[in-house]
Amino acid sequence: MVTLDSILLFVLFFLPYLVTSHNNNFYGLCLSNESDNQPHHNIVHAVGSKNYQSILESSIHNARFNNSNVPKPYYIIVPQNKEQVRGAMICCKKLGFESRIRSGGHDYEGLSFISYKPYCLIDLSSLRKIDIDVQEKTAWVEAGATIGELYYNIGNKSNTLGFPAGTCPSVGVGGHISGGGQGRKHHLRRLMRKKFPELKLKSKDCEEMSWINSTIRIDSYRKDSRIEDLLERNKEKRLTFYKTKSDYVTKALSEKALQGLWNVFKSTGDGLVILTPHGGRMSEILEDAIPFPHRKGVLYNLQYFALWHHPNQTAEKIKFDWVNGVYDYMGKFVSNPRTAYLNTRDLELGRTLIGNEKYSETKSWGEMYFKGNFEKLARVKYSVDPTNYFRNEQSIPPLAP
Ligand SMILES: Cc1cc2nc3c(=O)[nH]c(=O)nc-3n(C[C@H](O)[C@H](O)[C@H](O)COP(=O)(O)OP(=O)(O)OC[C@H]3O[C@@H](n4cnc5c(N)ncnc54)[C@H](O)[C@@H]3O)c2cc1C
């Protein structure tokens, strides 16, 4: 009889051999057959190879996921063109690996570079071509570009065009836009005068600047920052650890509710609560028009964000307790049913582990992110990926008709 122990022993014993033979497969048979005929050295980096660690870490922004306990990919593949993306996916699947796709690497739970089964990491950071058509007011952007690179390119071509995306320039276009992508496009003074006249904001309290300069200022809050700073992919790579959760507010919070929030803030540690206004054009789009469903009726998105700099369990516990304390307190004031923003990924809402979980097991957290669109997305998923190869711990499961 084959026991689990003997299978494990077999796997451990043969692992080095499997890695070497897979490596040959990748170079020799698989990638060259499945993609173009260009040389593939520098594209496939097997675990233990010279550049493996630096490439792996190049886009890990949350230090919570940069330690020896976190699973690592067997291969990192850095495609230089779309044919190689295709080849890499086919190879990984053929060789029995799962795949993880990484653009900017900002996923709050590290899902773009972590899997608990043997896996390849397909890192899109070399695919960052950006074409701006000023006449048409459109841009074609490859998924591995960052939003900072996009801002920079728009700013270089036009003084009047802009693109309202996130505040942190090193966030990847691939993850940011596919997850919703909320950003700024404010005419602050006019808005403040209309909505909050009691604050008496005057011109002299404001500093006029171009959109491109405002993108740099909001990121660094420094007067001496340069437009080129937007191109730094790893700028904020310090030893920063963080955890977030999110909510949507559909009914204005009372003063009493805010006072209570302030008390939770003071009593349980520290962190940030970020309010991102919705409405305007966002609420004109119907809830089921595209996957992002947080539309009409949403006043603003709330993000509870805790950050720490020293890796120890006590610090982590305090910060997690703070985020969870604020989240628990806010439960009665936010949207009902409770919802969440996909880009504020939160595995505490639920996750899949094996990959063949039933749709019904994923509904509770899936509908928080996608509301009624979740079922539709699961049916589309079945039609394009019935075996659920493209997955992570919070991906959309296939739902058969
Ligand atoms: C410091 C910081 C600041 C942030 N600021 C904002 C903000 O202002 N506004 C906002 O809305 N969000 C913000 N976010 C959240 C951010 O938008 C999300 O984390 C987003 O998913 C990051 O995209 P990425 O490409 O950098 O991440 P990745 O980790 O590379 O990807 C995120 C997810 O998308 C998948 N993915 C990425 N590329 C592809 C692709 N080409 N094809 C298929 N799947 C893909 C990954 O597998 C992963 O599941 C911020 C996050 C951080 C850490």
Give a structural overview.
By secondary structure, the protein is an alpha/beta fold. It has 3 domains: 4-123, Uridine Diphospho-n-acetylenolpyruvylglucosamine Reductase, domain 2; 131-182 and 210-231, no CATH class; 241-349, 3-Layer(aba) Sandwich (Vanillyl-alcohol Oxidase, Chain A, domain 3). The protein has helices spanning 4-34, 52-58, 82-94, 147-157, 173-178, 188-195, 211-220, 255-267, 281-284, 313-330, 359-370, 373-384, and strands at 44-46, 75-77, 98-102, 119-123, 130-133, 138-141, 241-249, 272-277, 300-308. Strands 1-2-4-3 form a 4-stranded mixed sheet, sandwiched between helices. Helix 1 runs antiparallel to helix 3 (82-94), helix 8 (255-267) runs antiparallel to helix 10 (313-330) and helix 11 (359-370) crosses helix 12. It is globular. The two termini are 39 Å apart. Residues 1-20 have low confidence and may be disordered. Bound molecules: flavin-adenine dinucleotide. Flavin-adenine dinucleotide (FAD) binds at residues 61, 100-108, 111-112, 124, 143, 166-168, 171-172, 174-176, 178-183, 343, 392. Flavin-adenine dinucleotide binds at residues 61, 100-108, 111-112, 124, 143, 166-168, 171-172, 174-176, 178-183, 343, 392.
